[in-house]
C-alpha cells in the first residue's frame, strides 16, 4: 500500500504502528499527527474514530508487518516533525514579517508583528479591560461601603429628609 495521501493520516498510522494503538498511545498518535484537541480524552476518542477508517487500518497493518519492532526513536522523530514551540513560532513570524515587508505586503507584515507583540504582552485586548466601576471587580470593603451608603440614603428618604448627592468618598 502506498503512502497515505493525507499527511496527518500517515503520521497517525506511523505512530499507531509502533505503539499499542490503544488508550494513551492512541491519544499521543492523534496529537502527534498534528491534530488539535482540547483534552486527552478527546484525543483518544478522535483517534479511535480514525482507526475505524479502513484505509488507515490497512496502512497500520502494512507498517507493522514491514517494520516489526520499530524503535521508540522513530516515534520521537515523527512527533518532533509536528511539534511547534513558542520560540519557533515567534522566529517564524519574525521571518515572515521581514519577507512580507520586503515584498511590499505591509498588511501581512503588520499582522505578523502584531502577533509577536501580543505574545510579548505589548498590546491590550480592549475587550479585557476591567473598569473600576464594575461591581464584579470591587473589593469587599468597597462593596460594604456602597451598601452602607445606599442604606443610609434609604433611611434618610424614609425619614422625609431631602435626598442629597453622594460625596466622592461615598461613591469611591
Number of helices: 9
Shape: elongated
How many beta strands in the DSSP annotation? 0
Strand proportion, as a percent range, falls in under 5%
Mean pLDDT, to the nearest integer, reads: 78
For the termini, the CA-CA separation is 74 Å
Instruction: Give start-end ranges of low-pLDDT stretches.
Output: none
Helix and strand element order: HHHHHHHHH
Major sheet characteristics:
none
Radius of gyration: 30 Å
Word description of this protein:
α1 runs antiparallel to α2 (23-32), α1 (7-17) crosses α4 and α6 packs antiparallel against α7. The protein is mainly α and 172 residues long. It has helices spanning 7-17, 23-32, 40-51, 54-66, 72-82, 86-102, 106-119, 140-158, 168-171. The radius of gyration is 30 Å and the shape is elongated. It is built from 9 helices and no strands. It has 3 domains: 7-82, no CATH class; 86-124; 135-171. The mean pLDDT is 78.
Amino acid at each position: 500500500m502506498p503512502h497515505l495521501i493525507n499527511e496527518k493520516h500517515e503520521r497517525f498510522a506511523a505512530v499507531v504502528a509502533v505503539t499499542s494503538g490503544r488508550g494513551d498511545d492512541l491519544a499521543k498518535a492523534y496529537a502527534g499527527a498534528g491534530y488539535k484537541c482540547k483534552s486527552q480524552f478527546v484525543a483518544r476518542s478522535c483517534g479511535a474514530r480514525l482507526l475505524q477508517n479502513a484505509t488507515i487500518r490497512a496502512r497500520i497493518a502494512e507498517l507493522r508487518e514491514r517494520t516489526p519492532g520499530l524503535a521508540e526513536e522513530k516515534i520521537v522523530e515523527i512527533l518532533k516533525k509536528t511539534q511547534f514551540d513558542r520560540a519557533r513560532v515567534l522566529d517564524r513570524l519574525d521571518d515572515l514579517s521581514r519577507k512580507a515587508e520586503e515584498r511590499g505586503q505591509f498588511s501581512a507584515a503588520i499582522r505578523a508583528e502584531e502577533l509577536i507583540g501580543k505574545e510579548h504582552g505589548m498590546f491590550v485586548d480592549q475587550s479585557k479591560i476591567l473598569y473600576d466601576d464594575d461591581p464584579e471587580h470591587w473589593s469587599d470593603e468597597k462593596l460594604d461601603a456602597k451598601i452602607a451608603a445606599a442604606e443610609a440614603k434609604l433611611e434618610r428618604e424614609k425619614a422625609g429628609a431631602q435626598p442629597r448627592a453622594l460625596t466622592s468618598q461615598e461613591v469611591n
